[in-house]
Every structure is written in C-alpha cells, then in structure tokens.
C-alpha cells in the first residue's frame, strides 16, 4: 500500500477532509482538490490543486491531467455532483492506471434521486419513509402532516421546508421545482456508514446516532451497536447494488419503526467517527480497490462518541494556488 497515490475531491468539506486524514495516517500520498483556492483541506493533503466545478466541461479533463502529472492510481470523489461524472468516465481513468472508488453509474443515479430511491426500497419491501412526488401526483387533502418538502436531487439540507399542516403547501408547490414530499418521522435520527466490496457484497454497517445536528451537520454523536439497523442497511446496500462506501440516513420512530429516507453513495461527512470507532472506511475502500479483500478484524467497531469543534488553518499569500482575493470578490 506504500505505492498508492490517491486524488481526493471536495477537500473543502468534511467528507474529503476525513478521507485525507485517514489516508495520511496510513502513509498514503494524497492529492487534495477543490473548486476554491481558500480550502482548509489543502493544508492537510500532501499536495493540492484547484479544479473546475463538476458542471464545467473541463472538469474530467483536468482530473485526468492531474492524475497523469501526479502519478495517481486511486480517485476518491466525495461531492455528489461529481459522482455520476466520475463513474461515467471510469474507463478513461482506468486507461491511465487509475481506479475509481465508486459503484456503477446507474446505482449512483438511483441513490441521488430521492424519488427513485424511495421507489426502489418500496419495490424490495425495505423500510423507507413514505414519500410522494410533488409533480401533481399527490393530493394535499390526502397527505398526513407534518411532512417535509425536499429537492429531489438536493443535499446538505438545502431547500428543505417543513409543513405542519396544509396551509401554504399548495402555494409552495405552485412555485414549481422538482420536489418530493416525505413523511416527517418523530424519533431518533441515525446515519449508517456502509462498505461493500467492488463485487457488491455488503461487508459492514456502522450506525451513528446523531445527538446534536446543526445545519444538517452532526456536531455530537456516537456509534451504536444496533443489529436491526445494520441488517437493514446491508440489505439495502446489496439490493441496490452498492459498491464501495455509502452513507445512509434514517429515523427510528417513537414506535420503534425504522424509516430510511436518504442515501449518499459516497463517504459521509462524519465518517471520521466510524474511523475512530475502529472501521477505517476510507483506508478499507482503497484496500478493497487495490487488494480485493479486507481482514474481518478491520470491520469491528466499539461505541465511540464525537463532539466537534472549529479548527483553524492559515495560509500565507504565497501558499495559495491563485489570487484568492479575486476569487472572493475582494478586489
């Protein structure tokens, strides 16, 4: 593993930072990339580069050029908007000796689209929060409240609205936009970090209780041994055909019902807690890519708590890769 050189995207976010920290601890070279120059993760990676946004035409060509220039052999995307693009261009990366830490394009698309995700879980009779498409396929008078309106392809809690009754919902839906409506489950919230091998066999599911959440980010939490959640998460992983890491979200209702409502087919923002508990998902993902197997002992975890705080990194002017004042509109 000492010859592994990994390119990690999105090192301005918690998931990317967590991957870099994990791989550095294992003496794996990391090239951290992000679309902004003023990025904390640049200080944590061995090397860094600014790349275009995923929606820009030169995103994949720039990644390919970086992989060739820096002798990269593993690509780990951590940003939702990049996942389908990187998976779709997997063969281009493979031709230059780079393995992509993602599953199949079709599977990723099913996970990112919350409406399709709901339909898939219903098809397999798996536990999922009741969901409706907001595109004229539901009658407001027949809905149960409270409920949540979410962008069908959203992430990070952006654009979410909670409705405690029908008042205002009709006007909101009339504004347009591709939304789903989902039952609001009263109860404890969990995330589950899962890992499957690259043949689709689920290996481990580590539930994390979200004790304190701010802006969609877990600030306090703990890993828990809950067989019911772990079994359900692994079943979802295998039924959907997930490969590599994923992060699922669910609630356990006051009546004890498990209701999954979201899945990210990539590493989660609090994968660091799972790593501290004993299951180093970023490292194991690389190990699976390069060696095909992991030791069962590496899949065991202990109850561990997390309490987050702000940490500061500083750049001198000559350390930044481009004119950051122009980037931030300070000129």
UniProtKB/TrEMBL annotation:
Is Amino-acid biosynthesis included in the keywords of this UniProt record?
A: no
One family name in Pfam for this protein: PylC-like_N
Which Gene3D superfamilies would you find in this protein's record? Answer: 3.40.50.20, ATP-grasp fold, B domain
Question: What keywords tag this UniProt record?
Answer: ATP-binding, Nucleotide-binding
UniProt xrefs under InterPro entries: ATP-grasp, PylC_N
According to the entry, every stretch annotated as the ATP-grasp domain falls at 118-290
Q: This chain belongs to which protein, by name?
A: ATP-grasp domain-containing protein
